[in-house]
Automatic annotation (TrEMBL):
Residues in Protein kinase domain copies: 1-183
Superkingdom of the source species: Eukaryota
Species whose genome carries this gene: Lithospermum erythrorhizon (Purple gromwell)
Pfam families found in the cross-reference section: PK_Tyr_Ser-Thr
Record's protein name: Protein kinase domain-containing protein
Family matches, as SUPFAM superfamilies: Protein kinase-like (PK-like)
Amino acid sequence: MFSSASMDEGFNELLSEFTVLINVHHKSLTSLVGYCIDVEHVGIIYELMANGDLKGHLSEKNLYVLNWQDRLQIALDAAQELREVIRDVKCTNILLDDKFQAKISDFGLSRAYPVETVTHVSTDNIAGTPGYLDPEYQDTGRLTEKSDVYSFGIVILDIITESADRLTMTQVVMVLKECLTIG
């Protein structure tokens, strides 16, 4: 059962994201379509991303296999937003539209901090996804552009290895050697 404080925090985070999304318009970010707030429910409706998330296309179960050109373009599309602190860069937050153009989702809380005036954000509440989190951010609570670069490096590794599952370093080396051999 959630405590009242955690429910209030979740509600405030959602309202913060909504407030930020109203003013954010960029081709590399998911667009806000609508919202609903009532006594018991709060929801934000984003544009339809017909091809789901990147993680779904890095699975052998997926019917559409991404070729190298698709993967490169998805990486370039996603990288467009790394000029700003995103906070939770990962394969499930990179969504693909009907033409496989990548857009970043779940970025609203990061936009509450203007990058021009803030070089980092310090927080006691470390947020993010294990496996994608920058170890320095985990240790210090300082979220910087470098934190997202680290996380994006993990996304690139996922794209290269065609897997959003964590690989051992030996497996990574084997996959990269194979990629270099193929050219």
